[in-house]
Amino acid sequence: MHELPPTLAAVAQVGVPVIEVSHVSTRFGTAVVHRDVSLTVVRGEVFAIAGGNGCGKSTLLREIIGLLAPTTGTIRLLGTDSRQLTQSNGSPLQRRFGVMFQHGALFSSMTLAENVAVPLREHTPLSAEAIRDIVALKIALVGLPPDSAIKFPSELSGGMRRRAALARAIVMDPELLFLDEPTAGLDPMIAAGFDDLVLELKRLLGLTIVMVTHDLDSLWRIADRVAVLGEGQVLGLGTMDALARSDDPVIRSYFHGPRGRAAHLNHSGMGLQRD
Ligand SMILES: Nc1ncnc2c1ncn2[C@@H]1O[C@H](COP(=O)(O)OP(=O)(O)OP(=O)(O)O)[C@@H](O)[C@H]1O
């Protein structure tokens, strides 16, 4: 029997759980960040983790990708306990996901092409020529011009830096893509363009996407499901439409404050109407 190419194999498994967070609690000293958090991400969705400042979104992301071990509870990533990632470097599992950290986290002393090449240099035996070709392809895929490859991060705009960071996150053809505050600090037009790019890459590459964000426009635009964290717990989990109807006071204040209302109006098209 022939094996399916990775993208088709991923499409064939749409809806299968790829991340299972079970009864996770996290403490830093006496500070409790998570108490009994459980959620499941299924293949093929854009799953967002939202909530107020300091509610533990990035910490949960770090736990899922094995940079940090939860105090209690378990997290299974693509069927493997993510503690195994915490304990070992260079696990084959690490090749199956890409991460775009907050603000892009590009190396300032490297050109854009060198930044994008880092995972290939670290995790594959590919020749310099093959790496150059793959990097050029990924730079084009995120909509950056070829001449940006030789530029340093300081020579790029904020939006271009995010696209470069995204190119690095997908350079190993991952199944799963993690985005930590991908649109933070971008102006609304650039942020919307970035959201569209994320959706396009999801479609082209058969990605499952987990995104930590405060950006209500992004949530309305691209999230299939959203987990709202607060008070150490999952306060609500569902589609944006379902969450917008929630009676939970924290969720209500999150979605029905001035920014939440404006984002909802924009999403429904009403925000674009003029008198
Ligand atoms: N390594 C650490 N040691 C001690 N405390 C930490 C550590 N990492 C995170 N925290 C604390 O855990 C809490 C949750 O932080 P986290 O960055 O996960 O929140 P967040 O929801 O992503 O916040 P923001 O939206 O502001 O980025 C914060 O109070 C933070 O100070």
Describe this structure in words.
There is one protein chain. β7, α7 and β8 form a beta-alpha-beta unit. The chain has 275 residues and is an alpha/beta fold. The termini are far apart. The protein has helices spanning 6-12, 57-64, 83-87, 112-123, 128-141, 158-169, 188-205, 216-222, 240-244, 249-256, 258-268, and strands at residues 17-28, 31-42, 46-51, 72-77, 80-81, 97-100, 176-180, 208-212, 225-230, 233-238. The strands form two sheets. It has a six-stranded mixed β-sheet with strand order 6-7-8-3-9-10. The chain has a four-stranded antiparallel β-sheet with strand order 2-1-4-5. The model is unreliable at 271-275 (pLDDT under 50). It is globular, with a radius of gyration of 19 Å. α4 (112-123) crosses α5 and α7 (188-205) runs parallel beside α8. The protein has a domain at 6-103 and 183-272: Rossmann fold. Bound molecules: adenosine-5'-triphosphate (ATP). Residues 28, 33, 51, 53-59 line the site of adenosine-5'-triphosphate.
CATH class of the domain at 6-103 and 183-272, named Alpha Beta
Question: How much strand?
Answer: 15-25%
What does the main sheet amount to? 6 strands, mixed
Helix vs. strand class? alpha/beta
Which regions contain 5 or more consecutive residues with pLDDT less than 50? 271-275
**H and E string:** HEEEHEEHEHHHEHEHEEHHH
Second CATH tier, the architecture of the domain at 6-103 and 183-272: 3-Layer(aba) Sandwich
Strands ordered across the widest β-sheet:
6-7-8-3-9-10
So, the CATH homologous superfamily of the domain at 6-103 and 183-272?
P-loop containing nucleotide triphosphate hydrolases
| Helix segment tally | 11
- The proportion of residues forming helix, as a percent range, comes to 25-40%
The total strand number stands at 10
Mean of residue pLDDT?
86
Radius of gyration: 19 Å
Remind me, CATH topology of the domain at 6-103 and 183-272?
Rossmann fold
Distance between the termini: 62 Å
The coarse silhouette is: globular
Bound molecules: adenosine-5'-triphosphate
